[in-house]
Amino acid sequence: MSTIRTQAPTSELTRATREKHREFMLPATIQYYEEPIVLTEGKGLRIRDADGNEYLDFFGGILTVSVGHANEKVNAAVVAQISRLSHVSTLYPTLPVVELAEKLARLSPGRLQQSFLASSGTEADETAVMLAQLHTGASEIVALRHGYSGRSMLAQSLTAVSTWRPLPTQIPGIKHAVAPYCYRCPLKLTYPSCGVACAKDIEELIRTTTSGRIAGFLAETIQGVGGFITPPPEYFEIAVGIVRKYGGVFICDEVQTGFGRTGGKFWGIEHYGVEPDIMTMAKGIANGLPLGACIATPEIAASLKALTISTFGGNPVACAAANATIDIIEKEDLPGNAERMGRILRAGFDELRGRFPRTIGDVRGMGLMQALELVEDETSGNRAPNKVMTNRVFEETKKRGLLVGKSGLEGNVFRVAPALNVSRSDVEEALAIIRESFTAAGAR
Ligand SMILES: Cc1ncc(COP(=O)(O)O)c(C=O)c1O
User: How many other CB atoms sit within 10 Å of the CB of residue 190?
Assistant: First the structure.
């Protein structure tokens, strides 16, 4: 039985919006789907396009809508704040800013205490690297292959996915260690007999390609754009031990993994038993309002002595949205829900791999960030990335009213990340659509 649901005729509004986008936006601003959808309104996990088609949103605007579209409590906080005061810049303390900074200090692991607020993950990572350099007096940074840090020159230089890098490295002193990518081990080893050699290799990287003294190691807990590459449990303890031995600090990028996304914990790194020296966050912090934060220990925070501002950083409206979002995440125990719903999602993905053993090479992720890596033929050992099939499944899910994501260096990773308050019936509905979409796409 077909469950194709998005068959409304294309309206003039949709046509005109696509046309204006083509005409007036940078052509490189990528859009999902052969025929991009013009989204106009959302409520909870349901979102509608300009033609009246309804979708179940399992991507949340790239892991950003944490508590559902048009969440009433978040919206009420935004309306109340915008009616009072919408902008002052970081030059003046405001109530929403200090409330948020105090919350972040309470929720963050270890001794992380003092925050700088900005408008994006890129700026949060920029701030983190600057603090690491000032604190250590060193400048070299170890980042990871398959990592993504954003759009500034520094963030682009930290990024190690060529498809997202229009220019060669512009900032010197960044060295990329091999990724903890077990499915495609860069060292051709197998976990656990590998002894987590990828983490140990950081020592050789530092000793051979740097001055021997580094400022820090910047890593995502789970590599998002890289395709939800999930390091083995021992990875960070080994990697960070080496980094500290050579004078560096650990910058943990929680832009995708923060705020309960990984299930059971507030931060992804808490699954690994390592305390960061600096942590960055954005995306899910404010349910879609633009906000990024960098939090550090007091000693590291004190190392920035020059004057610093951000015009839009710590915008009171975005901070009010963040305070309301975090209150909901805590009061409703959404990390717990992410763990429970993530388990159902993962079981569904494992079952899917059993149904399509040739196409689905790997299932990975934590909590409500789960991915499938699609290959030519896993059963015969042909792990060539299957981008064509990924695109086909992607279009089939859209036809059936489900929004998901895709990523990876080769564009062959299918990924899902619904709002943290997703229900069991939503997860079951999404799994049924994904199953049907794999069949319709000809997966084997
Ligand atoms: C892990 C990670 N860090 C940093 C960024 C940059 O964030 P933004 O797009 O808000 O600048 C992203 C964006 O996708 C990200 O995934």
Answer: 9
159 lines ligand 1 (CB under 6 A): no
**Does the beta carbon of 227 lie inside 6 Å of ligand 1?**
no
Asked whether the predicted pLDDT for residue 3 surpasses 80, the reply is no
Task: Report the candidate in 352, 293, 361, 357 with the shortest Cα–Cα distance to residue 322.
Answer: 293
> What is the tens place of the pLDDT at every residue in 214-263?
999 999 999 999 999 999 999 999 999 999 999 999 999 999 999 999 99
Handedness of CA 12, 15, 20, 23 (dihedral sign): negative
Count of other CB atoms within 10 angstroms of residue 291: 28
Shortest-distance Cα residue to atom 1 of ligand 1: 255
Whole-number Å distance, alpha carbon 125 to ligand 1 midpoint, is: 8
Q: How far apart are CA 42 and CA 71, in angstroms?
A: 9
Neighbours of 245 (CB within 10 A): 11
223: Cα separation from own chain's centroid: 7
Q: Which of 63, 129, 148 to mutate to test the pocket of ligand 1 (most atoms within 8 A of CB)?
A: 148
Q: Is the pTM value of this prediction over 0.90? A: yes
